[in-house]
Design brief:
Blueprint lengths: L1 H35 L10 E14 L2 E12 L5 E11 L5 E6 L3 E3 L3 E12 L3 E10 L2 E11 L5 E2 L4 E4 L11 H25 L1
Antiparallel strand pairs: 1-2, 1-9, 2-6, 3-4, 3-5, 3-7, 7-8, 8-10
């Protein structure tokens, strides 16, 4: 009788070890397949305004041609179409003195693009230059900068982004973290059931 109980205990331990080995092998195999076989899902295009420079140029007849250089980065993997709409708004009256639009361009994933806009405004004013960045015909980024033509010069440090392109929701293959604990629970329950039967 004692010999039979000893053999049952040995078989139970071996069975538990085999179950654990199978579970860990399955998890490890899935990780390898996910890493080297299943292609990574591309992240959606996400636009970010890196910097904006305002340059005072061509002053004549009380008017100033204000050049605006905008540097945009697509932090996503996918390409997108984009264009910029700009308004030069008088800070005292809050009236748009001029507006302009760039042509539609394609910004490739993980690349930066430079755009130039020209605005013509009275030379003796202070202006809030508002930028609307479109991605695939939808406004995704909003920002503004301030220019005081009474002081002259150029710079880009006054620009700030007010509305950012939302971060893309990427499926990072969350099945592995879920499968791992689930299989471990099954293994523990199976081992407990085996030892319970053996004790009887």
């Amino acid at each position: 009788m004692k010999k039979r109980e000893k053999m049952n205990a040995t078989r139970a331990v071996i069975l538990v070890i085999m179950i654990l080995l199978l579970l860990f092998s399955g998890i490890f195999g899935w990780i390898l397949i996910d890493e080297y076989v299943i292609p990574e899902k591309k992240t959606s295009a996400r636009l970010d305004v890196e910097e904006v420079y305002f340059v005072e140029n061509d002053v004549s007849q009380g008017k100033t041609r204000l050049e605006v250089f905008v540097f945009i980065t697509n932090d996503g993997d996918e390409d997108c179409d984009s264009f910029i709409r700009a308004f030069a708004i008088d800070k005292d009256t809050n009236i748009a003195m001029d507006d302009t639009t760039t042509s539609i361009v394609e910004i490739n994933g993980q690349t930066s693009h430079e755009s130039q806009l020209d605005l013509e405004v009275p030379s003796d004013g202070r202006y809030r230059v508002e930028l609307l960045i479109f991605k695939n015909d939808k406004i995704t980024v909003k920002g503004q900068g301030f220019v005081d033509l009474n002081l002259g010069g150029s710079g880009g440090s006054d620009y700030r982004t007010l509305v950012e392109d939302p971060q893309s929701e990427v499926d990072d293959n969350k099945a592995v973290p879920f499968i791992g604990p689930g299989l471990m629970v099954i293994a523990i329950l199976g081992a407990a059931l085996i030892f319970r039967r053996w004790r009887k």
